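Sanity check

After download, print the first record. It should look like this:
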Amino acid sequence: MFYYRILRVIVVLFFLNSCSKQKEIESKRNEPSPSSLSVIVNQTPEDKVSHAKMIETLSEIKKSTNDKNKYLGDRRARQVRDIINKADSQTPDEKKWFHHRILGWAELNLGNEEEGIKHLKSAYDLLPKVKGKVEEKRVFENIFMLGVAWMRRGETQNCCSQFTPESCIIPISSSAIHLNEEGSRNAIQYFNELLTKAPDKSAWHYRSKWLLNVAYMTLGEYPEKVPLEHLIPESAFESEEPYPVFKNKASELGLDSFNLSGGVVIDDFNNDDLLDVFTTSWSSSTSPKYFLGKKDGSFKESSKAGGLEGMYGGLNIESADYNNDGNLDLYILRGAWLEG
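Expected structure tokens:
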């Protein structure tokens, strides 16, 4: 009997303590904080040492990216450039073709569009000389990649350099038509060629047909100028159900940034009853970005004030109060991909 009385007292004390702790946490949550992430984080001396080690490690990874990271590094491209530069009149045409094709795609992945197009075109020009020496599907691939490269060029020249809220959203609206037509014009040439060479029901045929129609859209010439035999009907771009249009207001609200894919968390980080935005990028040389919500609905980038410099990378991000102190914590996931 005495045991049960003691147990009941312990349970009551436990719940009283829990309620007290919860009130303390709720109180912290309701206290407005200055407009900076750094003041929200109450670091212990051990935390500061650990944080410094993390920053040092991420800095080392950044420096080694070019050599070690197969996704973001340029080691492969450098190796193939060296092979091409050493080629001479004795080098077989099929080897030259192979290396120009590989380098062209590698340059595109690195964002070097002009170099990518140059090497894919060099491979394309060698196709008559390697006919019968390389697989037919590789020939189709070469032509298709060249078309894609020009499409990418058109996107950079228009959707990025001359951005509008409607840019690159299918079906292309009149306000998103490409002013610089170079990319789409050249892409159309190669997609049309592939459509005459690839079997009708092959993957290359369907891929080229789709992108051909999109290329004409970017020029404001769909559906009128699309060859009838390759025309995808307008009904294919219509939805059977009414669907809301989400307007891209990032530039207007101060949320536009240029970086690779990553994670995002939207929450009230400084307890001022306004939503803030925290984003990461999987690039090993890009720090997270913190956008502070303002009363007028716009945002102010406060990344530097938040002490985020050097916290490179982050393909995903999760938020929660991990240590039950009443403050929202952020868990950035970098993963094994970071060093490729």
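If your output differs, re-run the checksum step. Summary of this record's structure: Confidence is low (pLDDT under 50) at residues 1-30.
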